[in-house]
Write a structure and sequence with these properties.
This protein is α+β, with helices and mostly antiparallel strands. The chain contains ten helices and eleven strands. The longest helix is centred in the first third of the chain and has 71 residues.
């Protein structure tokens, strides 16, 4: 009578399941004791390095933000001293007291023209009467224009030295800063007002210099206390597009306030209804909380990308200068280390699998020896 051979037990990788299963606990122990500590140490080390690189980003941003803010402050203070000096010129004071004297007018014009040679950013320096009409100027085409509605005249008319926010000139239709001071007689009687019109070239140069200064993707901008962007680094090489890049606000402005600001040409040629809101709520919170000069770090997202930034409040004006950049510009160097860590983990798992096969075969051979050979 013929016999039928019993079917052979199916194996995986040449190892009978019972034998292989005996090796699994050993493999798991090897993975836990070998791979887990390695991954933990590597992860902690990488995170520590990432944190230190991020701290370096913030340190560099702080240095740049405070340095440029100080330069802008220094520039504004210098131009402020200039207009105070002009208000004390003898020929200017003499003409302000006798506006009908044409000889004195010529002398005042010459003094104003000389003062305007201090820097190429000076567009005009002028003497105004107490009604806000320009009576003598370094550029005579300015004469006859009445600017009594402008803040710089109204403040100087009350006896204050004033520095305006950037606004459009009604004469040139271009953005400018205005510095003004009262003209007083030797007896302290207000006789008139002097004002200078200075283009924004120097301030824009300072802001644009920080484009990419601290790393790839670094940018900078300055806002006033209303959140209006006064300067942005993106105007570098794009000055002809400046109006479309600046004057955007970081948060909505109450309508009546916006109407008043628009009347003072604070939004360029835009009306209050045309005001563009490019929201940065995180910065708005910081700006509202900064009541004195200093620097504050913050985090925000732009186009879905995390940005680290440092905001510095100026001393001469309630403006806030911001330098920002994505921290990934620094931390991206860790991508290779992360990939290496992952590759090491995969290699460890593969090695553990090979050990499992080897152990399985060893157990199988031990079983064979105990039963007197192959029982297949």
């Amino acid at each position: 009578m013929s016999t039928v051979a019993a079917p052979r037990t199916r194996t995986w990788l040449g190892v009978r399941p019972p034998a292989f299963l005996k090796a699994v606990p050993v493999v798991l122990v090897l993975l836990v004791l070998g791979l887990a500590p390695m991954e933990l140490v590597a992860s902690v080390a990488l995170q520590g390095t990432r944190d230190r690189l991020t701290d370096l980003v913030v340190a560099n941003l702080t240095s740049r933000s405070s340095s440029t803010a100080a330069s802008i402050d220094s520039y504004i203070q210098t131009r402020r001293r200039d207009i105070i000096n002009v208000s004390q010129f003898p020929d200017v004071i003499a003409y302000a007291q006798n506006l009908g004297d044409q000889t004195q007018r010529s002398l005042a014009r010459a003094a104003l023209a000389s003062a305007a040679t201090v820097g190429p950013e000076y567009e005009s320096i002028a003497v105004l009467d107490l009604n806000g009409t320009i009576m003598a100027a370094s550029i005579q085409t300015d004469e006859g224009t009445n600017v009594r509605f402008r803040d710089y005249f109204q403040n100087a008319r009350t006896g204050q030295v004033y520095v305006s926010d950037p606004s459009y000139s009604v004469i040139t239709n271009k953005p400018a800063l205005f510095f003004s001071a009262p003209v007083k007689t030797t007896d302290g009687i207000l006789a008139g007002v002097v004002r200078s019109r200075v283009n924004l070239g120097v301030i824009w140069d300072l802001v644009e210099a920080d484009l990419g200064a601290t790393g790839v993707g670094a940018r900078s901008f300055m806002v006033d206390d209303f959140g209006i962007r006064l300067a942005v680094s993106e105007t570098k090489g794009n000055r002809d597009k400046a109006e479309s890049l600046i004057y955007k606000v970081i948060a909505p402005i109450e309508h009546d306030t916006a109407v008043k600001l628009a009347a003072d040409k604070r939004f360029g040629q835009k009306s209050a209804e045309q005001l563009v809101v490019d929201p940065l709520p995180e910065l708005k919170t910081v700006v509202d909380s900064m009541i004195r000069p200093g620097s504050v770090p913050l985090t925000f997202f732009a186009a879905g990308v995390e940005q680290r930034a440092v905001a510095t409040r100026l001393e001469s004006k309630p403006w806030v200068y911001v330098v920002a950049m994505p921290p990934a510009s620094y931390t991206s160097v860790l991508a290779g280390a992360t990939n290496g860590q992952n590759t090491g983990a995969i290699f460890a798992v593969a090695l553990a699998a090979l050990i499992a096969v080897w152990l399985g075969r060893s157990v199988m051979r031990a079983d064979r020896g105990a039963t007197g050979g192959d029982t297949d």
